[in-house]
Design goal:
The structure is a single chain. The protein is an alpha/beta fold. It has 2 domains: 61-299, Alpha-Beta Barrel (TIM Barrel); 362-551, no CATH class. The strands form 5 sheets. The chain has an 8-stranded mixed beta sheet, covered by helices on one side. The radius of gyration is 23 Å and the shape is globular.
Length: 556
């Protein structure tokens, strides 16, 4: 059995002390001067004072939905980066590593998370694999889900991405939903663009949240059915501007999340940046903090303090409620960050992996010439959805190759779990490369190798660099090769988070030099195999139409 998550009952509680400042009581929408006494990791007393202070004490920030693996950091390193920004807890869906390693991967996340003073609350991944149209490294069936949900450290059923299965009463899906209901644990949703009667039916099954809304109208409709909306501002999908108006009238039903955040963005900020955006937009600070601190704790029934006597001493200190600069962060009364610097030590951690692909050759990416028009994936900057487009490739020796002039590039997904399986090949628009190739073993949700390039040679070279290191992200040009190895499940590094962020930023800059105009090219690439997000994607088994939920021809 894996060790339990770090809590006030484990080692690492802060010493008894008191702190004075303006106490921000979000639950009662009050601000008053106070001395807060902490004993054995909990708030022992709050005594109002007849004076004023220059600092404000707020409940710690909570990321209401995040895949830690997307930070490319193991949980302990994610925590080190997040506490610097006032975050004390995260509601985590470990379905990335579960798709690679199954329950062994979930146990790894629990074990690693338990080594640091930060509050990780993990869910049981509901869709491993996400679909039957791709090759994953593992399967987590209804029996395994129930075994997970029995465990105290598993707090909820993670996002039910198979909403067609839920709506249509798929027996395996329904068994997972019933297991969550049996143990009284919340069920997260994932229903991009689902509207009307089908959406209402989905919600009536007890599915209580959605983080995939991209329009205010969609979010308001889902709230009307009883859903809570998670406003997402991550590295690939940024929906804050569209959904921020919800804060004014629906703050009780709104939470903040990142979903997927890459390490360079995590260095710059976390949920605190969403709070700042909301403050700058003129939203009431109490409503904003309700979304950022309180609502996740209440909805998921988290053991996270909210500045009440008897609560865990989980809070942040800021210099003002308008400037909102994080000065200190405390978890269970322990000072874990000060002035932007984490006070949690970096420690080496063990690796786990599942990687069997053999090196590929240029000929593996050959697409026989056809006079028909190509179906082309249209990547959309800042969105996970794609367009369905059409275009023409170039022909070289009977092989359809990238058309750099029209930005129609060859994209491939390589099965990493089987040694000799041939790649699936398609074409994509809007990556903008005019040299080289990019590749990654982060490719949602099955995490096969995905690559895009201007020639078959570069495509193959970038893929083989990933295979050589058994996971990572790579970029190559005619003059240079770069890789960030990700030895933990091909998803995460155990290196210091700042170093991983620096190397990832270098790779992003390299991708931009190769011509990409996307704000996060590697993050965007990682979602081009996510079949449950409309409209056209590529799995390791072929081109997939998410609207009809079936494979489709490469040609019109």
């Amino acid at each position: 059995m894996a060790r339990t998550l770090w809590s006030s009952e484990t080692k690492g509680m802060g010493s008894d002390f008191s702190i004075e400042g303006m106490c921000v009581d979000v639950l009662n929408s009050a601000i008053y001067a106070a001395e807060i006494e902490i004993s054995e990791g909990k708030i022992a007393a709050i005594t109002k004072k007849n004076k004023s202070y220059a600092i404000f004490i707020i409940p710690g920030l909570v990321d209401a939905h995040v895949h830690v693996e997307s930070s490319m950091l193991v949980p302990a390193e994610f925590a080190r980066m997040a506490v610097a920004h006032g975050t004390v807890a995260a509601v985590c869906d470990p379905h990335e590593i579960a798709n690679v390693l199954g329950t062994e991967g979930i146990d790894y996340m629990i074990e690693n998370a338990g080594t640091v003073p930060f509050k990780f609350f993990l869910g049981a991944p509901s869709c491993v694999p996400a679909t039957g149209f791709e090759t994953a490294g593992a399967s987590v069936d209804a029996t395994a889900i129930e075994a997970l949900l029995k465990r105290d450290e598993i707090k909820y059923l993670s996002e039910m991405m198979n909403y067609p299965g839920a709506i249509n009463g798929d027996p395996g899906v329904m068994a997972k939903i019933r297991a969550a209901q049996k143990y009284g644990k919340p069920i997260d949703g994932h229903a991009p663009a689902l509207r009307g009667g089908q959406c209402e039916a989905y919600v009536k099954m007890g599915i209580s949240t959605d983080h995939e809304c991209v329009s205010l109208e969609e979010a308001l409709e889902k709230i009307s059915y009883g859903m809570k909306i998670l406003i997402r501002e991550g590295s690939a999908a940024r929906n804050f501007i569209a959904l921020a108006p919800l804060i004014a009238g629906h703050w009780h039903n709104v939470m903040f999340c990142t979903d997927d955040i890459h390490p360079d963005d995590l260095v710059r900020g976390h949920i605190n940046l969403m709070v700042k955006l909301a403050i700058d937009a003129g939203h009431d600070i109490m409503k904003v903090l309700r979304c950022a601190c309180v609502n996740p704790v209440l909805h998921y029934r988290l053991d996270v303090g909210l500045l009440r006597v008897g609560d865990c001493a989980d809070f942040a200190v800021v210099d003002g409620l308008e400037s909102f600069n994080i000065l200190k962060t405390y978890v269970n009364g322990r000072l874990v960050a000060e002035n932007g610097t984490p006070l949690i030590a970096h420690t080496p951690y063990r690796h786990v992996n599942n990687f069997n692909a053999a090196p590929k050759s240029d000929s593996d990416f050959f697409v026989p010439k056809s006079d028909s028009t190509l179906k082309v994936i249209g990547a959309l900057n800042g969105q996970l959805i794609t367009d369905k487009r059409h275009g023409k490739a170039k022909v070289s020796n009977g092989n359809l190759v990238s058309n750099v002039d029209d930005d129609i590039l060859k994209i491939a997904v390589v099965n990493r779990y089987e040694k000799e399986t041939p790649p699936a090949v398609g074409f994509i628009h809007n990556f903008g490369l005019n040299d080289g190739a990019l590749a990654s073993s982060i490719s949602h949700d099955s995490h096969n190798i995905i690559a895009v390039g201007v020639t078959d040679y570069y495509l193959c070279e970038a893929v083989n660099l990933i295979i050589e290191h058994r996971g990572g992200i790579s970029a190559i040009s005619k003059d240079e090769k770069k890789i960030l190895p990700l030895p933990v499940a091909g998803l995460m590094s155990t290196d210091d988070g700042l170093e991983v962020a620096r190397r990832y930023a270098e790779l992003n800059e390299f991708a931009i030099r190769l011509g990409s105009s996307l704000s996060a090219p590697f993050m965007m690439l990682s979602f081009m195999a996510l079949l449950v997000i409309p409209h056209l994607k590529l799995s390791d088994k072929g081109m997939f139409d998410s609207d009809t939920f079936q494979f489709t021809s490469l040609f019109q």
